[in-house]
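Hi V.,

Quick status before I head out on leave. The structure for the redesign project is tokenized and pasted below; the design run finished overnight.
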């Protein structure tokens, strides 16, 4: 789907315009973004930084936890922390944000100064990501992917919570923006396909699998990172990376970002569910997103991530409508 962007610049800040009830290609962007190489980003990401990323010297033991925002990044960071500490993350003082800094936001000198093995968090589509060009600089990527409808809902609350987006719209407009790829990091469909089709060493993990089968998924993560893993470590990791544990853990619940949030905003650790989109999408919105999902992603990718092709994929990721609600939103 070709989208007529409301911004004509390739690099620079775009002030958000007044929200409406819907958004169509060509309308001004209703949230404040930094455009980097034509892709809208959070204003924390500067285009000068994006420009220097291709020159970053990756090392063979670097790992990037790469995700489209709201796909379970923080959850994966906590899992990695649990594995690194053999199930005892509480023994490490640093927050997951300090342990795996946001690569696009940090300064080059700070990334250079990190002790190896370095694990970064990244929200770059593949073409903008750091990557090594020589055999001794080829690093690894841990990609977490989540049902786009749940990502869209989670991202909506994220925009409402963090004042830096200056977003005042309601869900129907946000859903239009998401479907047209006019949200942070651009199109979910392009982002996910870019990582699926790249030729790097990538471990793809779905949020839905992690939720349903953590005892199978966590050893794969440990193996990919070359970390020790046994039943005790897996058990402790499942326990200490659970939604309820993380929600009250000040080193993984993102409350250190609270000064960037509106008072009374829905917490960062919001619901942590599969299928929450059902309470937000109308049938028409759902069908529109399904059509773009089908058009912009390959059957091979959908089968690789969710085991089945489109109809069954959508069924598989739609989630259990009867799951217990954990927060009012
Ligand atoms: P919801 O808004 O749907 O609750 P990210 O870290 O990429 O920004 O993703 C945030 C989303 O992951 C939020 O989704 C958050 O609640 C969810 N999440 C964080 N920790 C989780 C956990 N331990 N289990 C399940 N979901 C978790």
């Amino acid at each position: 789907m070709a989208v007529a962007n409301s911004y004509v610049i390739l690099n620079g800040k775009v002030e958000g315009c007044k929200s409406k009830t819907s958004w169509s290609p060509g309308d001004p962007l209703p949230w404040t973004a930094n455009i980097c190489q034509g892709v809208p980003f959070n204003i924390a990401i500067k285009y000068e930084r994006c420009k220097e990323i291709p020159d970053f010297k990756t090392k063979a033991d670097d790992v990037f936890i790469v995700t489209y925002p709201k796909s379970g990044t923080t959850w994966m960071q906590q899992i990695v922390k649990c594995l690194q500490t053999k199930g005892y993350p509480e023994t490490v003082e640093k927050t997951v944000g300090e342990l795996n800094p946001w690569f696009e936001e940090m300064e080059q000198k700070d990334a250079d100064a990190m002790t190896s093995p370095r694990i970064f968090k990244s929200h770059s589509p593949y073409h903008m990501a750091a990557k090594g060009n020589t055999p001794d600089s080829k690093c690894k990527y841990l990609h977490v992917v989540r049902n786009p409808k749940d990502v869209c809902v989670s991202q909506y609350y994220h925009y409402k919570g963090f004042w830096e987006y200056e977003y005042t719209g309601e869900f129907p407009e946000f859903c239009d923006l998401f479907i047209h790829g006019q949200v942070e990091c651009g199109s979910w469909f392009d982002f996910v396909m870019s990582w699926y089709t790249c030729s790097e060493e990538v471990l793809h993990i779905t949020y839905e699998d992690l939720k349903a089968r953590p005892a199978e998924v966590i050893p794969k993560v440990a193996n990919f990172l070359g970390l020790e893993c046994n039943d005790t470590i897996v058990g402790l990791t499942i326990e200490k990376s659970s939604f309820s544990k993380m929600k009250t853990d000040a080193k993984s619940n993102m409350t250190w970002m609270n000064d960037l949030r509106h008072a009374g905003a829905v917490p960062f650790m919001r619901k942590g569910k599969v299928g929450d989109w059902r309470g937000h999408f109308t049938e028409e919105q759902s069908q529109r997103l399904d059509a773009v999902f089908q058009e912009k992603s390959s059957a091979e990718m959908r089968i690789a991530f969710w085991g089945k092709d489109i109809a069954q994929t959508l069924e598989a990721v739609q989630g259990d409508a009867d799951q217990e609600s954990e927060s009012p939103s």
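Above is the designed sequence. DSSP finds 14 helices and seven strands in the chain.

G. will cover questions while I'm gone.

Best,
W.
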